[in-house]
Amino acid sequence: MASLKLPKIGLGTMLARSEKAKQGLIKGIQIGFRFLDTAQLYFNEKTVGEAIKESGVPRDEFIIATKLFINNLKPKRVFSSTERSLNRLGLDVIDVLYLHWPWRFDKVDETLKAMSKLVDEGKISHIAVSNYTPQQVDKALEVCDKHIIANQVEMHPWLQQKELLAHHKSKKVKVVAYNPLLHGRFKQVPELLEIAEKHKIGPAQVSLAWIMAKGAIPIPKSANEQHLKENYESRKIKLDSKDLKLLDSIEKEKRFLSPPFISPPDWR
Q1: Which member of 42, 132, 178, 232 is catalytic?
Q2: Residue 256, Cα to own-chain centre: how many angstroms?
Q3: Contacts (Cβ under 8 Å, ≥6 apart) of 40
């Protein structure tokens, strides 16, 4: 299986289900985004597939990722739900298929074995996980006969994931960062505002540039054309050592997403 080179930044699609949202995705593609992230849970794979088709951009320029929901982790449902995802997306192959949450983790080997078969059948190209702890990633790497290429987790200046980043680098597992813009709470982060003023850029761009400087791949979501442009341009921003040190020094910790029952116990 060929290795996959992920771009520096991707486009999140959660809540993108309307015609307006689809047009926003198309704008994002036209601006330059090629790594699109969706999930069975988002109920928008059809919208994402239509945006890809209507953009006019060749399929082979995209990296398309979706995620198995927790009710589709038994092998039989892995196969059937992935077929439905392929149909909704209008694709012959899904580039990255994630395990969305570490639910039924005691039986993860069964799920990963089914996902590995999907790789062998050419239905998906790569296997990834989402919301896994470093210890859970170790277990997945141990039991899966294909490499786990990425772990998608919440990451931003209030949730810096330092231990996870170091662990994943040693295991050659990419970190994909959701909620990279702190739900727009920039005014509550003086360090972001200070650096934004210094470089005459937006605080959202500072957050995204910091994440990329850490070697992670942010997947911000927006339907606003100006925000899409600014987010995409953030990949060119180089923060200096003082900027990075200031952001690294933030002590506040806040996790925005931690649903009961399915989140790892370590989070609570």
Answers
A1: 42
A2: 15
A3: 66, 67, 68, 69, 72, 81, 85, 100
Q: Do residues 146 and 170 make contact, with C-beta atoms less than 8 angstroms apart?
A: no
CA 5, 98, 89, 74 dihedral sign is positive
Report the pLDDT averaged over residues 157-173.
Answer: 98
Our answer to whether residue 42 is catalytic in this structure is yes
Domains and CATH numbers, the chain: 11-184+216-221 (3.20.20.100)
- Whose structure tokens read 């231990």? 163
Q: Where residue 2 falls among pLDDT bands split at 50, 70, 90?
A: low
CA dihedral 147, 150, 153, 156 (to 10 degrees): 140
Angular region, 120: left φ>0, alpha ψ -120 to 50, beta rest: alpha
- pTM for this prediction: 0.96
Q: How confident is the model at residue 265 (pLDDT cuts 50, 70, 90)?
A: confident
- The 8-class DSSP code of residue 145 comes to S
Asked if 19 and 46 touch (Cβ cutoff 8 Å), the reply is no
Instruction: For the chain, give the mean pLDDT.
Output: 96
According to DSSP, the β-strands at 148-154 and 94-99 are unpaired
Does residue 3 have a pLDDT over 80? no
Q: CA 162, CA 175: separation in Å to the nearest integer?
A: 11
CB atoms within 10 A of CB 247: 23
pLDDT higher than threshold 80 for residue 16: no
